[in-house]
Write a structure and sequence with these properties.
Blueprint: E1 2-7, H1 9-12, H2 21-36, E2 40-45, H3 48-55, H4 65-88, E3 94-99, H5 101-105, H6 107-122, E4 126-131, H7 145-155, E5 160-165, E6 186-187, H8 192-197, H9 210-222, E7 226-231, H10 237-242, E8 249-251
Helix pairs in contact: 3-4, 7-9
């Protein structure tokens, strides 16, 4: 299978913004094992700004663009150093790809991006994609990394898109406010009712929320790709998802 896995800041980092070492080590181990099993893996990783916040000892995520970009520049170094070190322990080579909106919107640049991704996969490399927050002139140029992951999945004609976050999936209501809220395991169609139950922004260190995940699911499904939202606190959940077990919320494409 060709699988795109998106991991959010809340999965990669503690609330302080500092790296959650145990979780990131587990994530790299599981992804390496899945790759050893013959799967093609593309990782869309958030976390640059969040880790920069921790590295720079800032009290919170900055509001101004220059400080966000500075935090991203610092955090991206730590993020890629960590991935390179951990994946190397399992004999896998990684590549960094940083994107801005024009890389997707411009036809020539989009083709170049697609060709690069396919060649990296042919060479056995594990691509790690992130938005280029260091040079973006807006907080979110492409939309967010949920949207970015669905674009990447469509670009490489992935078999499956998995979003790992700090939530178990889509609920019938906000589980933090409604104790009767139930996890929805399977969504056959993204209806107005499904959109209505999506909440707002996620954690203070991240930029996404359930509404961006619904949009990502819609885009992926339109391109014939199933998408799963699952809790990334235990990365081994990826095994269950790929084995087709009832984990998180699966948004089923027409092809699915």
């Amino acid at each position: 299978m060709r699988i795109v896995v998106k991991v959010g800041t809340s999965t990669l980092a503690h609330r302080t913004g500092n790296l959650n070492i145990r979780r990131v080590e587990a994530l790299c181990k599981v992804l390496s094992d899945l790759k050893n099993g013959g799967n093609e893996i593309i990782l869309v990783s958030s976390g640059a700004i969040g880790m920069g916040v921790g590295k720079l000892c800032l009290s919170r995520r900055p509001d101004d663009i220059p400080t966000k970009q500075a935090a991203a520049a610092v955090g991206q170094c730590e993020l890629m150093y960590t991935y390179d070190k951990l994946f190397s322990e399992y004999n896998h080579t990684v590549a960094q790809i940083l994107l801005v909106g024009l890389d997707i919107e411009n036809q020539e640049r989009s083709i170049n991006f697609k060709n690069t991704l396919f060649r990296l996969l042919e060479l056995g490399v594990l691509p790690i994609v992130n938005e280029n927050d260091t040079v973006s002139t807006a907080e979110i140029e492409i939309g967010d990394n949920d949207t970015l992951s669905s674009v990447v999945a469509a670009t490489v004609e992935a078999d499956l898109l998995i979003l790992l976050s700090d939530i178990d999936g889509l609920y019938t209501a906000d589980p933090n406010k409604d104790s009767s809220a139930q996890l929805i395991h399977r969504v056959e169609a993204i209806t107005p009712e499904i959109v209505a139950v999506a909440g707002g922004k996620g954690t203070s260190l991240g930029t996404g929320g359930m509404s961006t995940k619904i949009k990502a699911a819609e885009y992926a499904n339109e391109h014939g790709i199933d998408m799963v939202i699952a809790n990334g606190s235990n990365p081994s959940v990826l095994y269950d998802i790929i084995d087709g077990r009832d984990v998180g919320t699966r948004f089923v494409s027409v092809r699915g």
